[in-house]
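dude i think i finally got it to work??
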Amino acid sequence: MSQIVPNRKIIHIDMDAFFASVEQLDNPILRGKPIAVGGSENRGVVAAASYEARKFGVRSAISGVLAKKNCPELIFVRPRFDRYKEISLKIQKIFHEYTDLVEPLSLDEAYLDVTVNKKGNPSATLLAQEIRLRILNELGLTASAGISINKFVAKIASDYNKPNGQKTVNPDEVLSFLEVLPIRKFYGVGKVTTEKMYQLGIFTGLELKSKSVEFLEKHFGKSGTFYYNVVRGIHNSEVKSDRITKSVAAEHTFEVNLSSEIFMMEQLENIATSLEKRLKKHHIAGKTVTLKIKYSDFTQQTRSKTLPYFISDKGLILETVKELLFQERMKDSVRLLGISLSNLNTEEKKTVVVQLKFAF
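look at this
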């Protein structure tokens, strides 16, 4: 079990319906209207939806056909990932004016450790307000924030007052906050795990806290230790600004878990396209293709294959990824897919990572 470390001041910033908001920012005609980024009324999958569309049940990862059925007035917009990346870099530039301890999770969210910050401001709450105001004034977009003693609680808190709001969970409030929290809202507890916890009589943090570590490990394996600790406010993961590995990777997190390999292949094609662009940009090729799968219960699996030659072409990457995908059956629904290329053809093997996360 983990030992409690001194409290840190962590801010989790999450942009509000990022992809859709950028489209509405750039095209005034779309403002106030229900829009879906990606997909179409005939085929494809929705990548992101504006808040106006969400009122009708339009969510990322649902089919364009279902989205249009739910919202007949829905407007489909083609995604522009280069534009989203451009805005994301401007947002991160603002973050770095406050602290160098910035850990991007995706184009639209990041952790900031402001325990010691460049503004000399002891209040993480006031810093979060200032950062959100700057994003609004300088970029015309709204963001929500969660502030607490660790990444786990900050992540949960950022979802509380969306959109364009924030929530602070002070050190003396953490335990009571987690005790009354519905188990389905625990970051790291997916739909399948939630149902399993319900069957075990665990519906809130307090009921989770009543279970011994032995009980949780028996029913949830290694994840049991994680659940045992986080409900006690123990989450020692640091904000890491520089993750260096010898690979080039692209990942995609889904708001709604995927259970169909057909949908997965469609998403993997988008991921491979992003990966190919970065490989070409940095003049990198590699021999080892790795498929990363994160299931709804947050367990993770990787499947790899090493080729006898260097590749950087999307078609060759996809061919290998498809083989890896159907190598064995999925053990659960999937919340994240990623492709990485390692065993590179360059001496300086720095990581180039992009994570495409559906806004929600």
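Residues 146 and 158 are 4 Å apart (CA to CA).
im so relieved honestly
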